[in-house]
Amino acid sequence: MTETAVATHVIEVEFKGNRRAFYTWKGEAPPPVRTAVIVQVERGEDLARVHSVGDLAHRRHQGTSHGKAAPDKLPLAVRLATPHEVDTAVRLRVDEEAVRKAALEIVRELKLDMKVSDTEWQWDRRRLTCYFTAEERVDFRQLVRQLERRFSTRVHMWHIGVRDEAKRLDGVGRCGRQFCSSSWLPELRPVKSSSAKDQRLSTLNPSQISGTCGRLMCCLRYEHEFYVQSRKRFPKEGKVVTTALGEEKIVSNDIFRDTVTLRTAAGEMRTIPLVQFRKEVGDAAPAIEEVPPGASAAAGHGALVALRRPATDAEDAEDAEDAEDAEDAEETDAEPTGPADLDDEASSETDDTAPRAKAGADQAKHTSNAPDSARLRGRRRRGRRGGRRGRGGDGGGDGGAPPPPGAPAG
Description:
The chain has helices at residues 54-63, 65-68, 83-110, 141-151, 162-169, 180-183, 193-198, 224-231, 274-282, 296-299, 313-333, 339-347, 354-368, 372-391, and strands spanning 8-14, 20-26, 36-41, 44-52, 77-80, 115-121, 127-133, 154-159, 240-243, 246-254, 259-264, 269-273.
């Protein structure tokens, strides 16, 4: 006679200090939430309480950090805890404070730079875990030896951060509610200072945006994405724009009222809706640069069109100088260099120069058939170099000024 298959369920249990793990429960139905159960651990058995079951336990097993780090084959939840076993766990919790004080005395004797924040007995007293915080690496081997001799059990030291310490010890935040890390937050993610800057909280006292642990509050992450997406609709603060009243500087933006505060050069302030600001600035928005008529064939239909940005006075002067150089270069390069001129030059030379003249003619013919855009770019580069050397006063280079009368020929 075969045995009937026993249903298995995934349950999430909670130990002391909001430490949670996932286990397998065999039975027709999982135990109710907050029920005390005996579970298997690395060294023996421990007592925990059920935190979630059913679909919620499956979702948390796939989405939480301690669920993703769980082994493929979950350990087994042995049985429901009896009232006597629950009383044993309560007595161990009372004794843990005395163990922590004893550990602190040994730390002071050994002059170790560490803080023992909490201790935890395993339910069967086969292991004692000490949680501590430290700024640097600590050699606690002598501390472990003394604790093992004193309590006759295996001692495990666990280095945690200040956020994990606040999660274990629990408490009430400045909002008047229980710590999010202890009540519902599934994992402790780092909070960057940019979260406070994007919410315009960086100007406040750092203690006002820090939690009990001394780090930035975890709740700064909740609305950070909202602030980032909302500010993308507004102009950059401190920028000078041209509006209906002339040049004005953007002082501040109100993402909740959709208003922009501007200040004129005379110091007058005004606050206008974001829609009105866009209408006023829309007339002076950067225009799309038109494609030159001669460059349409070279650019092609798939070419990208650049946007024209406001140029400074120095850039305008440099562009005017480059344009003048390009015009001079075009006048110089406009002289015909066809095969007829090359034939005249070849007739005045000896026969051994004929092949070179023929090669020059082929090259000139090939150059005359090149795309207009490539020829214009070459002329612009040659004209720019020649014009700048000519205006430099040394009289050298193509495109330079002619030598003064009476000067010796170069």
